[in-house]
Request: fold
Amino acid sequence: MAAQSNTGHGGRRWHVLLFPLPYQGHINPMLHLAGLLHARGFAITVFHTHNNAPDPARHPDYRFVPVPDGMSGPAPVAILDVVAHIIAMGRACEAAFRDCLAAFLEEYSRDAVACLVADTHLLPVFEVATTLRVPTLSLRTGSAACCSCFLAYPMLFEKDYLPVQESQRDMPVIELPPYRVRDLVAVAEDHGGLERELIARAVAAMKLSSGVILNTFDALERRELERLRRDLAMPVFDIGPLHKFSPAGDSSRLLRQDRTCLDWLDAWPPESVLYVSFGSLACVSARDLAETAWGIAGSGVPFLWVVRPGLVRGSSADPDPDDHHHLLEGFEAATRGRGMVVAWAPQEEVLRHRSVGGFWTHAGWNSTAESVCEGVPMLCRPCFGDQMGNARYVEHLWRVGFEVGGGLEKGSVEAAVRRLMTDRDGAEMRARAGELKKAAAEYTRKGGSSCLAIDKLVAHMISLSDHYFV
Reply:
């Protein structure tokens, strides 16, 4: 996208301030947004915690401002620990962020700051910005459907959908079709109120902001976007898929990518390889890993599998480049010549590769959107958070894949892989995914709805500054 000029009062350049949540699936959309806004002529300043800090050397055009968070040690992996960590981190960095933001405003004239865009899960950041009279926008890195689910949580508890009773897991949530109770973001008994608190804080952050930015597009979630605009009564900007608007360099690499897999993919026929990756946070049991491995082996399908450090529950998350070579005894010999295992892959490029015909995914929103945009059908094995709802949309609404549920067994894995990769079912899913790929291309080209939404977002950002700093 060609750069355009955005200047503030007196001919000065507009600044946009960003504050991502320090997890891979949240940092990447924020940095993609930074790339998009920078291409529109904005100066970019990224506030960030020390935990999972982005590498300034990879983004020489941006200014980076570290915000001490008072927390040390590696980021947690277990989902409840992650939830607790997010809440604690927001609170811990509040005072330091106030100082950092005040110093920034002192250094740069206020009337050159358009706004602050922060991740919705950082409520204290919104509160600090509001106190210092900096307008804010909320970035939701999940789907519009998930956002509606967050807003509906008081109703879900009031109507006894939550906390979930085992006998009600398959009951439809009539107010949020096509969700079933099992697809809601929090389906377990309330663990000390953590999930409920996280969701309440995200909703509070959205309501403090002057608009919500979503990494989705109209062809995927038209009905959900209409509902959000009605329920939020504020501007909602569906400017996705974000990764289609900004260079590949506008992302974070918390793990080193093994780019040799792209050369390996070159040797395979079109749509013949299954790509397997469970994202940067999801964990599996040793048993499920074994059943998955032997099911893939038994399918006879060529595969590229990301086995990152810490993938197996209870194993070390320390990056050991050789760790994945010892996946399972006998597995390498059984799949020699038709499989490659790497610690991390350049996922957007892998999904774009002509030889990839299917994606076994945890159904995180970034992975789901990237797969849809490249016309790649999915096997979904959701683990937590919004992943269950995303898998529901993949299977039930868009019909571009299906969920692999229940206990994993070698035979069921083998059958699922063949269904996706070699059966007629898979071919039909691939065709439907191809239609969504065309829609994504249409919506992101000049004059498409996502491009028009970006125009509206840019105008809204500048109008916010005019409103606040008169």
Observations:
- The radius of gyration is 22 Å.
- The mean pLDDT is 90.
